[in-house]
Specification:
The protein is of the alpha+beta class. The protein has 3 domains: 3-61, Arc Repressor Mutant, subunit A (Orthogonal Bundle); 71-279, BirA Bifunctional Protein, domain 2 (2-Layer Sandwich); 286-326, Roll (SH3 type barrels), CATH 2.30.30.100. The protein has 10 helices and 14 strands. The strands form 3 sheets. A 7-stranded mixed β-sheet has the order 3-4-5-9-8-7-6. The chain has a 5-stranded antiparallel β-sheet with strand order 13-12-11-10-14, with no helix packed on it. Strands 1-2 form a two-stranded antiparallel sheet. Strand 3, helix 6 and strand 4 form a beta-alpha-beta unit. The longest helix has 22 residues, at 246-267. The protein is globular, with a radius of gyration of 21 Å. The chain starts with 5 loop residues before the first helix and ends in a 13-residue tail after the last strand. Pfam families: BPL_C (PF02237), BPL_LplA_LipB (PF03099), HTH_11 (PF08279). It is an enzyme of class 6 (ligase). Biotin binds at residues 97-99, 121, 125-127, 192.
Length: 339
Amino acid sequence: MDRSMQTPLAILGQLSDGAIHSGTAIARDLGLSRTSIWKALDRLRDDLGVEVVAVRGSGYRLPAPIEMFDQERIEAALSVQARRLISGIELHATIDSTNSSLIKRINEDLGSGFVVIAEHQSGGRGRHGRSWVSPFGGGILLSVFWRYARGPFQLAGLSIAAGAAVATTLREWIGEELALKWPNDILWRRRKLAGLLIDVVGEASGPSHVVVGLGVNLRLSQEMSAAIDQPWVDLASIMGHGLPGRNQLAAALIGTLVEALDRFDRDGLEAFLAAWECLDRYRGQPIMIRIGDRAINGIHAGIDEKGALRVLTKDGARLFQAGEVTLRAPEFGDEKGDW
């Protein structure tokens, strides 16, 4: 971690309870000047996306408390099965990208089930080259490393399996309105709540090194919406005061992912198809799938046994292994489409 972030993070630790803390008390407790505090507060806002409220005549507070990640609390909340499958957990205050950090280390002696989790990412990645926006403490940001003996082309459907597993766990928290959009965007009332990014590196005949990244919106401010290019929602908006603790939620999702990755190795995608069908609320609805600069309009007709998207177009049923899907399809007849 950048040493220059130590002071901002120390101040954030004091403010994390959501109460008002005077500048004088913070300066005294941390041995800082008031000028140093002001500069650190600017860095919290500009570099970490943390909104700090100045209360005139009283001090500073956060809009809501932040439960910081605690490795011991996460490990204590893991199921027995998850503990067996996890080879290690590495926690970062801030990191470029949890996925990228693991990809750089695939030649190290990492065991399957190695987890990197972070409070903040400076270069978080989503699908199709997008960035994943999340302020410090505003979400669940983690990646899991896994090794498979088979080659990358034999892992078709892994993205579907991971998405179905995570969505099933989140649905237990927030109910029936949760849905999956192919291949693994997790939506609530057609707004994105969570997403997965899977990176695979390996030889054609194997082995394959897989990194599964997960981002879940926990609490985002409206100011963050300008940087997000699609409808979004966070768990705080959905659950209100019933929001689970971040460490509890992180442990549940880590356990879900490692168990899903292990099961996929044994049973393949077939073990997850029923869960996908249960969460596929958009079947029968118009969609558009974009591949490069080409757009294909049609009706979403589910997925096949390998996880490919089935679309009913004017030319009949077609299968897609890749592409960007939108539920807000334009009127049929779009000049770039083929419907």
